Amino acid sequence: MGTIRVGTSGWHFPEWRGDFYPRGLPQRTELQFLANRLDTVEINGTFYGLRKPADYKSWFERVPEDFVFAVKGHREVTHHKRLEDIDRDVAEFYESGVLDLGTKLGPVLWQLPPTLPWRAERLAAFLDLLPGPPVRHALEIRHPGWDHPELVRMLTERGVALCVAESAGRFPQPVEVGAADFVYVRLHGDQELYASAYTDSALDRWARRVREWARDRDVYVYFDNTMRGAAPHDAQALAERVG
């Protein structure tokens, strides 16, 4: 039986203050508050810019020993350079402090832009740059051309998970998740992208899928419906359902 972790995509959101976060809670303690209620979070700020080792050290020290961070890869690699000539950029990302999370480092998520067509040769070159075990990696696709049988084969060969992403029908939601030893799920909203809350029936549906995957591998689930504050509540509700 694998380990199931359920969290949110990020933790600094004004909409959460006075709701999930009690009114008057100092912003510097929001991560600690979340980490006492969930067992993982996805660091999204690393997508927009490289962080410093001191940032990762601070995050590491502010959460319990069994807490895990997923880290989103830098957009310079995926969106700006579109997987071309990225050797130094990938190295700089991992050298920025990501690996300093040590035992609290979960998967690293690389999200591709919706404007990037299927490019098998670019993907192969990119995957060859990723550090090996124990670091785990997941790939989120957003162009329909990437929902391709060759993609699953290439990721499976390298132990990379194909992200299961629900996005209100906006982006592809692959049916086959590959054969990595973990499953990575991002729930952006089933009715309205980044905004709509999940109903009880929708959470029940996802709980069934998560329990099925967890029979033989670890599962990480992150709610990204953050805009109206539903994400932490939905995460707690799903965590209760999967035990």
Automatic annotation (TrEMBL):
- InterPro entries tied to this protein: DUF72, UPF0759_sf
Which superkingdom is the protein from? Bacteria
Q: What is the recorded name of this protein?
A: DUF72 domain-containing protein
Upper classification of the source organism reads: Bacteria, Bacillati, Actinomycetota, Actinomycetes, Pseudonocardiales
